[in-house]
Amino acid sequence: ALYDAGWSPVVEPFRRLFTQGMITKDGAKMSKSKGNVVSVDEIVDQYGADTARLFTLFTGPPEQDAEWSDKGVEGAFRFLNRVWRLYDGAELVSHEGGSERDPADYSAADRALLRQTHITIRRVTDDIARFHFNTAVSACMELANALAQYREAHGVTLVYNQAASILLLLLAPMTPHITEELWHELGGSGSVHAQPWPRYEAALAASETVPLVIQVNGKLRGRIEVPADIDEATARARALAEPKVAAQLDGRSPRQVIYVPGKLVNVVI
């Protein structure tokens, strides 16, 4: 033991034990005796080490058993190929100081991509800290899809490069080889793994609109999208102008209007 060898000052050198689940194939635990072991070398030779890593991380929560899937491996390989194509013609942009620009200078599409990017930073940061690697991978996949859709509509812009640079850093712990290669292909200095972790900025992740529930006497009568910073007077006016609410009032004034900021308006008749 580390303590017995004098290498650790505490009897137990860790706070808790995390035990990972087993990988099964065709419903049985992988075992050489069963002859159902998948050779890592074959996977690496055919798809690369990052594909094997990504599939293993994405297959499910690490504490649970998971079923091996050849289709899942192929899916991870296709995703990494899509990631590589995202960086054709892209440039590395520092994510530091990203909020200094006035949000009004961005287009709606720019703001949507930045919002998705910073939501992804928060999700991946939290998920990796909790060993929820499958959901961290899922968040990166969603951002990659958003980047592809943005690029198809708007091309490679400064905002695209910002988001793509952040995706590269978020993927680096999970797919270290492709991200290191892309980092150098794009002119990055040093190693991608020595870069600062992206900083989550709540202001950039904030939604511009929120759904506002409209009730009459506590019963749902509709939902409307309103600005996230809507004030109470405007929210009340919007609710009272809703056709279903107006029909219930039939020209009468409500006895009370209850407003829960950013969530609901309940009109009491």
Total helices: the number is: 10
Find the count of extended strands (DSSP E, 2+ residues). 7
Q: How would you spell out the order of helices and strands?
A: EEHHEHHHHHHEEHHEE
Amino-to-carboxy terminus distance: 73 Å
The residue fraction in helices comes out at 40-55%
Assembly annotation: single chain
Low-confidence stretches: none
Structural class: alpha/beta
Radius of gyration: 25 Å
Beta content:
5-15%
Taking strands numbered 1, 2, ... along the chain, how are they ordered across the largest sheet?
5-4-7-6
Mean pLDDT value:
88
Shape: extended
Main beta sheet: 4 strands, mixed
Description:
By secondary structure, the chain is α/β, with parallel strands linked by helices. 46% of the residues lie in helices and 13% in strands. The strands form two sheets. Strands 5-4-7-6 form a four-stranded mixed β-sheet, with helices on one face. Strands 2-1-3 form a three-stranded mixed β-sheet, with no helix packed on it. 25% of the residues are buried.
Write the layout of secondary structure elements.
Elements: E1 23-25, E2 28-29, H1 40-47, H2 49-58, E3 66-67, H3 70-86, H4 108-129, H5 133-154, H6 158-171, H7 176-185, H8 202-205, E4 209-216, E5 219-227, H9 232-241, H10 243-249, E6 256-260, E7 264-268
Parallel strand pairs: 1-3, 4-7
Antiparallel strand pairs: 1-2, 4-5, 6-7
Helix pairs in contact: 1-2, 2-3, 3-5, 4-5, 4-6, 5-6
Short overview:
The protein is of the alpha/beta class and 269 residues long.
Key terms:
10 helices; 13% strand; four-stranded mixed sheet; extended
